[in-house]
Write a structure and sequence with these properties.
heterodimer; A: 248 residues; 75% helix; binds adenosine-5'-triphosphate; binds magnesium ion
């Protein structure tokens, strides 16, 4: 292959004011992080709630949570995104529909769709981790909580969840990383996150390889950083003398 | 203090408890023994409503468990329970294990709860370990903490479900000593245990269960004294465990 690598391209002006191509990548990274973090908050809250429901002694609640998981885990992410972006707004009550389609900027409406989509999709996966974590605890912990006079919600909050979360930090970390990677689907509905910016820069400059190399590096560095962050969290919450937790 | 009245319990079709009746009065120490699977744990768990039962009633300190209006969490907070596998909360320090229920269930202040917890920890000889975590203690030490945790709730009665059977032999006595002391101080106790030495020393009565039924329920002296008056099954059981 005879390709003239030109790394200087990122510092060249895009022709719009002072803007360089690097600025596009920075803006894209900003959207990627904004999508992933907001989606993660939804996923963590909803996933925890669903994970709890799957373990409570109530067949109806457990059944609802199970249905949720089966639906959201088994429909491809892209299909879900198109449903949220193209179909769901049409099903909203008229004022909301108009607000979504006319009042919001295209970026905002794409952002909302992808955040909801990724949040609900990832919630199904978080739910399964939380359920596994709770079920991994000895049955006696629940009994001990009851025996001391705790009510069920308190038992979950103070006894079961703090232990379950410590157990599931590693799989939760990979879900956390996944949501950053999955956020690239947003490029398909026109949100200028990192992948979309990369494609655009590649097309404008014709420096395809440089653009995608940089994007790869950014995704990689981001994920490594997040992984280190989660390791720190894991260390911080590790309990002395507890082997199942903390990794060592 | 505890009145168990014609209790029946099934797991599906399987009958675990069959017409069980007995009384434990205030200050009394009752030892429950019997072969594995005879329903001892189930019976004792019924006393603080950890397990529901289908027929009969259990009355604890004047409160009927069969009454649907009974506030079960409140009742359980007044009944101490010690488990075979300790069931300390591994993510909490020893001090937190001793105070969490006092604070969150009884609504005590943190200082009051800590003071009470530490006093009990001293009583079971573990004051130096207050800042450790359960995983850093031996089995015997964990069980003593578990007893202190139950006592911190000022229980009207203490239930024990084979508190020493998960322990290495050299740790059994440190736990039994705490239990003996408790018995001698007048605590009402119902203990599932095969430690006949403990039964001989402090029990007032011994209950022998087999296949979900209370087969023997008599004073300690009678239980150990006059074997010929015991049922065939109780004699067989005693012969087996007294050999050890
Ligand atoms: N959750 C359950 N579902 C079905 N059967 C059960 C359940 N728990 C206990 N059993 C059965 O009920 C019977 C009594 O059990 P229990 O635990 O009360 O016996 P135990 O006398 O305490 O025995 P051990 O000395 O082994 O502890 C056993 O046959 C057991 O298999
Ligand atoms: Mg048992």
């Amino acid at each position: 292959m005879n390709y003239n690598w030109d790394w200087g391209v990122f510092f060249r002006s895009t022709g719009i004011g002072e803007e360089t191509y690097l600025d596009w990548f920075v803006a894209g990274l900003g959207w990627t992080i904004a999508v992933a973090l907001a989606g993660w908050i939804i996923a963590l809250l909803l996933g925890t709630l669903l994970g709890i429901l799957r373990t409570v002694p109530n067949r109806w609640l457990a059944g609802i949570a199970t249905c949720y998981v089966e639906i959201f885990r088994n429909v491809p992410l892209l299909v879900q995104l198109f449903l949220w972006y193209f179909l769901v707004p049409d099903l909203l009550p008229e004022p909301l529909e108009l607000w979504f389609k006319q009042d919001l900027s295209p970026a905002t409406s794409a952002y909302l769709s992808v955040v909801v989509c990724l949040g609900l999709f990832t919630a199904a996966r978080v739910c399964e981790q939380v359920r596994t974590g709770i079920q991994a605890l000895p049955r006696g912990q629940l009994a001990a909580g009851h025996a001391l006079g705790f009510r069920l919600p308190q038992i979950y909050k103070d006894i079961l969840l703090p232990q379950a979360f410590r157990i599931i930090i590693p799989p939760l970390t990979s879900e956390f990383l996944n949501i950053f990677k999955n956020s690239s689907v947003a490029s398909l509905i026109g949100l200028m996150e990192l992948l979309a910016q990369t494609k655009q820069a590649a097309e404008f400059t014709a420096n395809l390889f440089e653009a995608f190399t940089l994007a790869t590096l950014i995704y990689f560095t981001l994920n490594m950083g997040l992984m280190l962050l989660m390791r720190l969290v894991e260390k911080k919450v590790a309990v002395p003398g507890l082997i199942a937790v903390g990794g060592k | 203090m505890i009145s168990i009245q014609n209790v029946y319990k099934w797991y599906g079709d399987f009958q675990v408890l069959s017409n069980c009746s007995t009384e434990v009065s205030k200050g009394e120490v009752v030892v429950v023994c019997g072969p594995s699977g005879s329903g001892k744990s189930t019976l004792i768990k019924c006393v603080n409503a950890l397990e529901p039962f289908q027929r009969g009633d259990i009355v604890v300190d004047g409160i009927s468990l069969a009454d649907p209006k009974t506030n079960l969490p409140k009742l359980r907070s007044r009944v101490g329970m010690v488990f075979q596998h300790f069931e300390l909360f591994p993510h909490l320090s020893i001090t937190e294990n001793l105070t969490i229920a006092q604070i969150k269930v009884l609504g005590r202040g943190k200082d009051e709860a800590t003071e009470k917890g530490l006093a009990l920890l001293e009583r079971v000889g573990l004051k130096a370990h207050a800042h450790k975590y359960p995983g850093q203690l031996s089995g015997g030490q964990q069980q003593r903490v578990a007893i202190a945790r139950a006592l911190a709730m000022d229980p009207v009665v203490m239930l024990f479900d084979e508190p020493t059977s998960a322990l290495d032999p050299e740790m059994v006595n440190e736990v039994l000593d705490v239990m003996v002391q408790l018995a001698q101080e007048g605590m009402t106790m119902m203990c599932v245990t095969h430690e006949m030495g403990f039964a001989r020393k402090v029990a007032d009565r011994v209950i022998f269960m087999d296949q979900g039924q209370i087969v023997e329920d008599c004073a300690k002296e009678a239980f150990f004294g006059d074997l010929s008056a015991r049922s065939e099954r109780a004699r067989q059981f005693l012969a087996k465990i007294l050999q050890h």
